[in-house]
Specification:
By secondary structure, the chain is of the alpha+beta class. Helices cover 27% and strands 39% of the residues. β7 and β8 form a beta hairpin. The protein is globular and about 50 Å long. Bound molecules: coenzyme A.
């Protein structure tokens, strides 16, 4: 299973003031708030953690069909981080999702998978035929089967990702 999320940093600056009172406390656990405070570019850390949570949530929701706004139930940890990329985990209830993020001055794009080995098999696709189930969850229509696909758009950017078979 796969999830992804893209954050257009120009758009997020227009839409959200992450420095406003209560913003961080509402979305992030105490440990995550520490990641933001201690990182040299706190704004990047805010949207990195956000995109990890949203990407993981898309798998969680596909698995469980539970719809909820549950930012603090999606707990992020980072295994690797530099100015261009990050990898880590999001734990939600008994589930672990593995994430990989690309960071640029324009956007942050995170993909999440349920099986660690699938992390290296993610590809981007475009202009494919999509069908959605009754919950709005998208599938890629190939000749005879439906395959999981994750779609994300924000501001100027859109990403469609699948796990390559
Ligand atoms: C459903 C949700 C994940 C959509 O995310 P978004 O950032 O608003 O929008 P995105 O563009 O990234 O994703 C939208 C796409 O996801 C897909 N999608 C919609 N519902 C979905 C779901 N439940 N599971 C997986 N994919 C879903 C759709 O394909 C949709 O695109 P389309 O309408 O063009 O087909 C989000 O609104 C939500 O409910 N999040 C709650 C989880 C949470 O607690 N987040 C806290 C973050 S700090």
């Amino acid at each position: 299973m796969i999830g992804n999320d893209i954050v257009d940093l120009a758009q997020s600056r227009l839409e959200s003031n992450w420095q406003r009172k209560g913003f961080l406390e509402k979305l992030f656990t105490a440990e995550e708030q520490g990641f933001v405070k201690d990182y040299s570019e706190p704004e990047i850390m805010v949207w990195l953690l956000w995109s990890m949570k949203e990407a993981a949530y898309k798998i969680y929701n596909r698995q469980t069909k539970i719809r909820e706004f549950c930012p603090k139930k999606l707990c992020c940890s980072l295994d690797f981080l530099n100015s261009n990329m990050a990898s880590g985990k999001v734990i939600c209830a008994e589930n672990i999702y593995y994430t990989k993020s690309r960071i640029s001055s324009e956007n942050i794009h995170t993909v999440a998978v349920k099986d660690f080995e699938q992390k290296e098999n993610i590809i981007e696709v475009q202009n494919k035929e999509i069908v959605k189930d009754q919950n709005g969850i998208p599938y890629l229509k190939t000749t005879d089967v439906l395959q999981d696909i994750s779609i994300s758009h924000h501001g100027r950017f859109e990403k469609w990702v699948i796990i390559q078979k």
